[in-house]
Amino acid sequence: MPITTRAAVVESAGAPFTLSEVVLEDPAPHEAVVRLVAAGLCHTDLGVASGGLPFPLPGVLGHEGAGVVEAVGSAVTGVAPGDHVVLSFTSCGDCRNCHGGHPAYCAAWLPLNLLGGRRADGSGTVSRDGEVLGGHFFGQSSFAERALVDERSLVKVDPDVPLASIAPLGCGVQTGVGAVWNVLKPTAGAAVVVLGAGAVGLSAVVAAALSPATTIIAVDRVAERLQLARELGATHTVDAGQATLGEVVAEITGGQGADGVVETTGNTAVLRQGVDALAARGTLVVVGAPPFGSEVALDVNGLLGGKRVVGLTLGDSETQAFIPALVELVKDGRLPLDRLIGFYPFADIEQAVRDMTAGKTVKPVLVF
Fold it and tell me: How far is residue 194's CA from residue 213's CA, in Å, rounded to a whole number?
């Protein structure tokens, strides 16, 4: 039987999130019904809600869900009713990158997660008054009290860890941590620079602090964020409004430059500065997403010293192994997400949006 639930619906580009009664379809063979306990709010949700991506609206967003499985489709084998799960992105499971352990680069990633608003077969997952809404966002659309979730979005986690404390693992945190662990892979004594001290950037700082890197430089314009970065493991902080990045990095590293840079701001001018601050054979990871079509000019001769610029989606993570490992770090206190999270009742989603936009809360988490 279809399930009636309450969801935060975006009616049109630029409209606010409004609570509305919607209907979930019956789970397909590879789907599950999840009762949401919490869901993180991410800048990607706000970008889609503003009309920055051609997602079909009215629609239900949300892609950092955490909850309890209530029912499963006939072919689901990885989870069962009662299991605690973190929800992440979905993927086809059949393409070369999925088979190779890189589902974030699935051949069907964009239509399945960001743009389609429906299942791969074109059918909808959520409706209102008989109208099919945009749904299946990241295979979950978790801004709802219950969600119809793709099996490949489900990650079973330790039931002893409070779900509200780990909801952000599905996107922002695994992106920042994965940028460091899966791409930069710092060696002993490495210097890592993190551009932007939001949720993704601060997650990268923590990841670098758990690595062999000995110099960790956080860069931002907000003094409170920089102080938090120090408390989370940054050895140096830089106020981007008061200093020239290349000069400061050169001074801190004795003229060598950065072995790794994580660019989270989405600002192309900042990206260029990060590339220029790299050491020979250094790598910059592009995480922040500017508007589609954005370009950046690079000094080609400056790249000949072995510098690399690498794009990244969702930490290049294989979620079934990566997210449970992050949960263990949260449980042990080595990944202190509580320092980033601010909790909001689901009904206060618009207040969470305002606080996130104003920089008052690093990572808003909605609780149901």
Answer: 13
